[in-house]
Write a structure and sequence with these properties.
The protein has 416 residues and is α+β, with helices and mostly antiparallel strands. The chain contains twelve helices and 13 strands. The chain has a six-stranded mixed β-sheet with strand order 5-4-6-3-1-13. A hairpin with a 2-residue loop joins strand 4 (78-82) and strand 5. The longest helix is centred in the C-terminal third of the chain and has 25 residues, at 288-312. The radius of gyration is 21 Å and the shape is globular. The termini are far apart. The relative contact order is 0.18. The model is unreliable at 1-10 (pLDDT under 50). The protein binds alpha-D-galactopyranose (GLA).
């Protein structure tokens, strides 16, 4: 039997795909023609930089959302079900859908609700098909996911990418991965009301087994950086079990502070700032929130480039040092961490065999990422549980993840 503090067993992606297929069969009595898998992600470093045109270094993980899809037997309506929420979203893709419009059952597409993500992605994909003169039809679609919802591991982007890839495959649209990512981000902005950057969708589209992805979020230049061998280093995710909501005003506030900082500095985006220009700016010194945003983003971009170089050179000690610095900046300067995450990060970082640890994703709860020697995993799991217990925080849950491939299709249309 597993000890209670050992990493949870990872559900293999195939099991998630099977669940999506079963959900479709149980709801529509049809078997899928296409099944897709789209991974969640863990960002190693480069946090809150993507919406300022900066650098990020995420890996796609072996936790996925899976979409099972079939052409709808009723050409006048699409239906979507998911395994993490009750109900069905019913809508008609033959005409453009606007974010504010009610669904045929009269219910509104409420931003942030799962239906806003699902309907949003299909609507944007259908618009793309229309504008390219391609045929598209209504669909029945079921989604299962083993990416923890709201845990900072990109449950939303993996959900979106699994749907987008399924629709693209069944409608035979040739869409390059980064364009697919970008269409999903547009759907998230317009329908779910979340002003996210491109990182989550990009890594879910472009992930590669055994590699991290260095993405320049301005030029969208992507470079895969090999991860160390699995016996040399492990990636451990520790979920604080504190739920965060990205649509919450705090993410938007940080984005707004970055925009203000860039404008006070007279640069197009914070990507273009330097620590010297920030330190010498009189207007910025009068706006402490914008000053902090500029400092975090500028130093984080530099750390991310150094971290990618360290990872490429196999220098895990340097990578770990940069991760710890990144966490400090997120905690003290940008202020997007929380006491539960700080406790986990500190308990992990002080354990022998750990190279580095930090919060990952949007923050305000969610997960920490730890890079460590594999044999140190049980001790780290025990220590974070006991540190959280001492503080009366929720019990953290740890699981090892592996750098995995991006979105993929498991079956092609039978009649294709
Ligand atoms: C969320 C957003 C991303 C990114 C991160 C913070 O995950 O979806 O675009 O901004 O937060 O790095």
């Amino acid at each position: 039997m597993r000890s209670p503090n050992s990493p949870e067993h990872e559900a293999p992606p195939d099991a998630t795909a099977r669940r999506a297929g079963e959900l479709l069969r149980s709801r529509s009595s049809l078997s899928p023609d296409v099944t897709t898998l789209a991974p969640g992600r863990v960002n190693l470093i480069g946090e809150h930089t993507d919406y300022s045109g900066g650098f990020v270094l995420p890996i796609a993980i072996d936790r996925v959302a899976s979409a099972a899809v079939v052409i709808s037997p009723d050409p006048t309506r699409s239906r979507i079900w998911t395994d993490h929420a009750q109900g069905v979203a019913t809508f008609d893709l033959r005409r453009p859908i606007s974010p504010g419009s009610p669904l045929p059952d009269g219910s509104p597409i409420t931003p942030g609700d799962w239906r806003s993500y699902a309907v949003g992605v299909l609507s944007i994909l259908a618009d793309h098909a229309r504008s390219h003169g391609a045929l598209h039809s209504n669909l029945d679609l079921a989604i299962a996911s083993d990416v923890p919802i709201g845990g900072g591991l990109s449950s939303s982007a993996s959900f979106e990418l699994s749907i987008a890839a399924a629709a693209a495959e069944i409608w035979r649209l040739e869409i390059p991965p980064l364009t697919l990512a970008s269409l999903c981000r547009t759907a998230e902005h317009r329908f779910a009301g979340v002003p996210c950057g491109l990182m989550d969708q990009a890594i879910s589209a472009l992930g590669r087994s055994g590699h991290a992805l260095l993405l320049d979020c301005r030029s969208e230049r992507a470079e895969h950086v090999p991860m160390p061998g699995e016996d040399q280093a492990a990636v451990l995710v520790i979920n604080s079990n504190v739920r965060h909501s990205l649509s919450s005003s705090r993410y938007s506030q940080r984005r707004e502070a970055c925009r203000r900082a860039a404008s006070l500095l007279g640069v197009p985006e914070l990507r273009d700032a330097t620590t010297a220009s920030i330190a010498n700016s009189a207007p910025l010194s009068r706006d402490p929130e914008a000053f902090a945003a500029a400092m975090h983003v500028t130093t984080e971009n530099a750390r991310t480039l150094s971290a990618a170089a360290a990872l490429g050179a196999g220098d895990l000690v340097e990578l770990g040092r940069l991760m710890i610095e990144s966490h400090r900046s997120l905690r003290d300067v940008y202020r997007v961490s929380c006491p539960e995450l700080d406790t986990i990060v500190d308990a992990a970082a002080s354990t022998p065999g750990v190279f580095g640890s930090r919060m990952t994703g949007g923050g305000f709860g969610g997960c920490a990422v730890v890079i460590l020697q594999p044999q140190a995993i049980p001790v780290v799991c025990e220590r974070v549980v006991s540190a959280a217990r001492d503080m009366n925080f929720p019990r953290p849950a740890s699981f090892r993840v592996r750098a995995s491939d991006g979105v993929r299709t498991l079956q092609t249309p039978r009649n294709g």
